[in-house]
Specification:
By secondary structure, the chain is of the alpha+beta class. Helices cover 24% and strands 25% of the residues. It has one domain.
Length: 246
């Protein structure tokens, strides 16, 4: 018998290898494109979430401070202490004329001098926050919202005491509020009920502020990787002081 001749083995042709390689490269390209898109989306959402969280925490802190402002008021003492640092003269401190106990004007017609503080971007709260009567100031300078905490001292202007660089701490950065979009808007107690302080006439003075509306517009620190643009986060909050006696 004649032995069977071995059949030659057939491999892939050059054309088949080239087609398979091209398909593989297309699949890899699509996978890396999706991975890059996913990374960009994750980075953008992380930045946005970080800005949102920082802004929300800032608003919550301001609201908490405002809600408990004005304690202890003068009305809780049978005999008013001679030391004015033992009580809160008002939930909201002001400048100028604080030392003369004459509120500045938040409205027209004015009562006393126009307010330097409180204002659209500046707020000083006065209360016992746990360590004695304290001034807490929130002030927007440039794009940084600063927070100052100072123990109240007699015969001392609160605006001056809280302007010391040693006590001014950056509280929130990249704040993009403008004159058309103030950080603080105030509502005052009037005989006719609650009214926006600038419209409250002679009742629009700091010691009659009842509510504060807070708006913070914060910009992300880096551009969005997808759009190449910076993103803005805008959040609102409202503080309502609980102490009705001053």
């Amino acid at each position: 018998m004649r032995a069977a001749m071995p059949q030659p083995e057939r491999g892939f042709t050059i054309m088949e290898l080239m087609i398979a390689t091209a398909i593989f490269l297309v699949i890899c390209g699509a996978m890396f494109g999706l991975l890059q898109l996913s990374q960009q989306k994750y980075s953008s959402e992380t930045q946005l979430s970080g800005a949102f969280q920082e802004t929300r925490l800032a608003i919550d802190q301001i609201v908490r401070d405002f809600n408990v402002s004005g304690f202890p008021s003068q009305g809780v003492f049978s005999t008013l202490p001679a030391n004015t640092a033992k009580y809160a003269l008002s939930p909201v401190a002001w400048s100028p004329n604080y030392l003369a106990n004459t509120p500045c004007a938040l409205a027209s017609p004015p009562l006393g001098a126009p307010c330097t503080t409180p204002g659209d971007f500046d707020l000083i709260l006065e209360s016992d926050f746990g360590n004695g009567v304290t001034w807490i100031r929130y002030q927007l300078i440039g794009t940084t919202l600063f927070r100052s905490v100072v123990l109240k001292a007699p015969v001392t202007d609160p605006a001056g005491a809280t302007s010391d660089p040693a006590v001014m701490v950056p509280f929130l950065t990249n704040v993009m509020n403008s004159p058309a979009q103030p950080v603080f808007r105030f509502t005052c107690d009037t005989p006719a009920g609650l009214q926006p302080c600038p419209a409250a006439g002679n009742s629009g003075v700091p010691n009659r502020i009842r509510d504060v509306d807070i708006t913070l517009i914060v910009q992300t620190r880096r551009p969005d990787l997808q759009t190449g643009k910076l993103t803005l986060v805008e959040l609102d909050g409202r503080g309502h002081r609980l102490n009705p006696s001053n």
